[in-house]
Amino acid sequence: MAGPRSRHEHVAAELRARIRRRDYAVGQALPTESALCAEFDVSRGPVRQALATLKNEGLIRVSRGKPAVVRSHEATQRLDTFTPFTEWAERAGRTAGNRTLEVARRRASGAAAEALGLTAEDFVVEVLRVRLLDGEPAMVERSTFIDSVGSLLFEFDTDSGSMTAYLAGRGVHFDSMEHVLDAVAAGADDAANLGIAPGSPLLRERRVSRDQNGVVFECADDRYRPDLVTFSIVNARTSFPDP
Amino acid sequence: MAGPRSRHEHVAAELRARIRRRDYAVGQALPTESALCAEFDVSRGPVRQALATLKNEGLIRVSRGKPAVVRSHEATQRLDTFTPFTEWAERAGRTAGNRTLEVARRRASGAAAEALGLTAEDFVVEVLRVRLLDGEPAMVERSTFIDSVGSLLFEFDTDSGSMTAYLAGRGVHFDSMEHVLDAVAAGADDAANLGIAPGSPLLRERRVSRDQNGVVFECADDRYRPDLVTFSIVNARTSFPDP
Q1: Nearest chain A residue (CA) to B178
Q2: What pLDDT score does B2 carry?
Q3: What pLDDT, in 10s, does the model give residues B112-131?
Q4: Domain map of chain A by residue range?
Q5: d(Cα A218, Cα A236) in Å, to the nearest integer?
Q6: Per residue in B189-241, pLDDT tens?
Q7: Smaller CB count within 10 Å for chain B: N or C?
């Protein structure tokens, strides 16, 4: 992740910082490409690459022949690809961090047992982590794995990064996932872990994940601070028939 | 919409009602196909069609050779297609309703002006509606249209149904939409309109819609009661590269 920044990364990081500290309102235009070239003393290539990066992150909207316009102050995760958190953060030039609260092997509780197709006698491995963006608590993650997969995680430092990447290296692939999004009020625990007031609205993503053989091996309940992370999706007409 | 119900619609409606009144827990199995055939005195065809309908609504999960399992008690809108509310409700066997609070032509305010690329001197048409599911307030909809499109709505009974369908009939198509999802606390107005306590978490969908010529003609801020509506999406591996 480290290493010297290329010119386009430098331009993207600076513009991203300005957008995040609200130097521009949503809808406001960024400086023109020419102005950015002059300010950063670079050619058009790096400027355009930086703008493409910010567009991909959902921060700006780009129209041909016009200056880019700020679309959102928050980083947004694209729902149609659902990139794992660590990878998404890195691509967006943010630093992902993890604070593991618990990795526990225990007998399956009601909801997880049902989602995973287990009985209350079966064991599962539950991982509870706070996920950080640039050091700030952004999400509380509750993942429950079937025992054969979850046991692999006792050999993994869950503070170090992506369980998705680790499990892929052990041959367990998140082959398909079903997500349900809603909103919940933060309880006392979530509020304390996220540094927000109890009752604050959180964006919740619940999911069930299947491996390459179609076996459900994980269910999860992830709760995001909406001031730090949103989700986005674009529908084109092919996917949106006229009524 | 009307007309006598076919056999599969009857089976779907009955199973849907049972799921919604929590006769089954999430994760619990429905009766087997054979049991359903016996109970409803129909052949396998209508039973399978009914189960496919409920699966499509996000209420159940179907695996080959096993009874269907309840996935959610709430109806869920699929994010990858983003069917208009009225059409989605009808397909799900629910009754959509609308209570128009305001249709107003006024000068563009800050955020909408920026999203629509207008100045504060330009006019927009703002539509504020409460959208109902089976008579219950489920969502507060705030749509802002550019004047040329919004003016068409003064000839439309906004209590009667889908603006999407009406505008398509007038040659204005929702060709592509960019959505951002997050969560917000209900303010006093939203709480009163939705019949919930102020501060309750709401699932918010903001969007910008373009017509067939790529022109942004609508921006919207829709706030859903998460106990009545959730959003769902399925990712398969093709859209989810390994890290």
Answers
A1: A234
A2: 38
A3: 888 898 988 999 999 999 99
A4: 7-73, 76-232
A5: 31
A6: 999 999 999 999 999 999 999 998 888 999 999 999 998 888 888 776 543 33
A7: N
Q: Which CATH superfamily is domain B78-232 in?
A: Chorismate lyase-like (3.40.1410.10)
Comparing A155 with A81, the larger pLDDT belongs to A155
Of residues B54 and B237, more confidence is placed in B54
State the nearest Cα–Cα gap between B1 and chain A, in angstroms.
Answer: 13
Contact A5, A50 (CB under 8 A): no
| Beta sheet of A176-185, edge-to-edge order | A96-107, A123-133, A136-146, A216-224, A201-210, A176-185, B229-236, B75-78
Q: Where are the beta strands (DSSP E) in chain A?
A: 60-61, 69-70, 75-78, 96-107, 123-133, 136-146, 176-185, 201-210, 216-224, 229-236
Q: Are A240 and A169 in contact (CB under 8 A)?
A: no
Determine contact: A19 vs chain B, CB below 8 A: no
Structural contact between residues A143 and B212, judged by C-beta atoms closer than 8 angstroms: no
Cβ pair B242:A80 closer than 8 A? no
B235 touches chain A (CB under 8 A): yes
CA distances from B115 to A1, B107, B180, B215 (A): 35, 14, 13, 12
Kindly report the CATH number that applies to the domain delimited by B7-73: 1.10.10.10
Per-residue pLDDT band for A3 (boundaries 50, 70, 90) equals: very low
CATH code at A76-232: 3.40.1410.10
Number of cross-chain residue pairs from A and B with Cβ atoms under 8 Å apart: 187
A162 near B CB under 8 A? yes
Burial class, B41, CB count within 10 angstroms (exposed 0-12 / middle 13-18 / buried 19+):
exposed
Q: Is the ipTM of this complex over 0.85?
A: no
Question: DSSP for B170-186?
Answer: TT----EEEEEEEEEE-
Tell me the shortest Cα–Cα distance from A182 to chain B, in angstroms: 5
Nearest to A183 by CA among B237, B161, B178, B194: B194
Is the torsion defined by CA of B51, B55, B56, B59 positive or negative?
A: positive
Q: Pull the structure tokens for residue A140.
A: 């509380």
In chain B, the percentage of residues whose pLDDT exceeds 90 is 52
Query: CB–CB of B240 and A180 under 8 A?
Result: no
The alpha carbon of residue B184 is apart from the nearest alpha carbon of chain A, in Å, by 6
A235–B179 C-beta distance less than 8 A:
yes
Taking CA atoms, A228 is separated from A64, A94, B225, in Å, by 29, 12, 22
Distance of CA B134 to the CA centre of its chain: 13
Mean pLDDT for all residues in chain B: 87
Which comes out higher in pLDDT, residue A111 or B86?
B86
